[in-house]
Design goal:
By secondary structure, the chain is α+β, with helices and mostly antiparallel strands. Helices cover about 40% and strands about 20% of the residues. The protein has 5 helices and 8 strands, in the order E-H-E-E-E-H-H-H-H-E-E-E-E. It has a 3-stranded antiparallel beta sheet, covered by helices on one side. Strands 4-6-7 form a 3-stranded antiparallel beta sheet. The protein has a two-stranded antiparallel sheet with strand order 5-8. A hairpin with a 3-residue loop joins strand 2 and strand 3. The longest helix is centred in the middle third of the chain and has 17 residues. It starts with 5 loop residues before the first strand and ends in a 5-residue tail after the last strand.
């Protein structure tokens, strides 16, 4: 946190600006589609020449910290979490620059095929191919530390795994 309104997400293991710019593009696409996300501004260099992204973040806490601080409000937080996931997973996206999660998993499966039995590979391949096609958004890493609470509303962060596909992913 730089000040009350600004935070910098520091990438400890990423030195490739293309990867960070990709995450910024994905976050902006989600924001344009009406998904509540933190507003990113630019890439900056921080401690020991690490890369970071500057975000506008009003005074807020992670959903994880809110649940720990206010355990009596767990039901309220879970309702908001479910509503956020429903909004994400019903928002259609036809931008060809947003990765397709099913295709990504099928690619991963093909890479590990040499280490699988034919039966295991065929079973996994069928299972993935049987998942219905969808063009709806998926966060890909939607846990309580990747959600911020701002004025009672939830905002998604860490949009590097944003993709399209069936919510089962």
């Amino acid at each position: 946190r730089i000040d009350k309104d600004t935070i910098i997400k520091v990438f400890n293991r990423v030195s490739d600006t293309d990867q960070i710019e990709r995450e910024l593009r994905l976050a902006k696409e989600a924001f344009i589609l009406g998904i509540p996300t933190a507003i990113s501004f630019d890439i900056v260099r921080v401690d020991d020449d690490k890369l970071g992204v500057r975000f506008e973040m009003l005074d807020c806490q992670s959903l994880k910290n809110m649940v720990l601080t206010y355990p009596d409000r767990l039901g309220e937080f879970l309702d908001k979490y479910a509503a956020l996931l429903k909004k994400m997973n019903t928002t259609e996206c036809f931008n060809p620059n947003i990765p397709d999660m099913k295709k990504a998993y099928l690619t991963k499966l093909s890479k590990i095929q040499p280490w699988l039995t034919e039966e295991a590979y065929n079973k996994l391949n069928k299972m993935l191919n049987d998942i219905p096609e969808r063009k709806t958004l998926i966060h890909g890493d939607c846990h309580f530390k990747n959600i911020m609470v701002q004025n009672g509303e939830l905002l998604l962060i860490d949009m590097d795994t944003l993709s399209i596909g069936h919510p089962i992913f």
